[in-house]
Amino acid sequence: MKTSFQFKAAFVFAFALFLSSLAFAQNKPASPHDSTSATVAGSIIKIKYGSPYVKGRKILGELVPFDKVWRAGADSATSFTTSKAIKVEGKSLPAGRYAFFVIPSASGAWTIIFDKNPKQWGAYTYKQENDQLRVTVEGKAGPKAESLTYTITPKGFNLKWDTFVVPVSIK
Are the C-beta atoms of residues 103 and 68 closer than 8 Å to each other? Predict the structure, then answer.
């Protein structure tokens, strides 16, 4: 009888463990972390970011306000690393690791910021005096992208989310 009880208790415990593992496996993070890396202009470029989903929300002008510093991802500030000095939109950026921010614009140029403090939570502690480099680019309409992604190309990189693309040139 004691063996039967122990067997039943072990079975119930194993079944509960199995069910809880299934429940945890179903939970995707709201903004999974992602990264990309490639060589551009002789430098290894690495971008690490939180990748939020649109989930039916209005992104530009609401979730991501116009004319305000945005972390260009989710959770911690997006991290941009270059192994060698590069030219971003024709301006020099020394080798190093930076926080990457964007100031979106409803009309006109978007501001791209490489900040000397790479370890920040969001843009809450951002200070303009820590900028290593600021450049402007033209954001444009693009195909619908449910999750925020960065893609590195032979000419630079693109930030894509919802229905916009922000191309940044590297030489």
Answer: yes
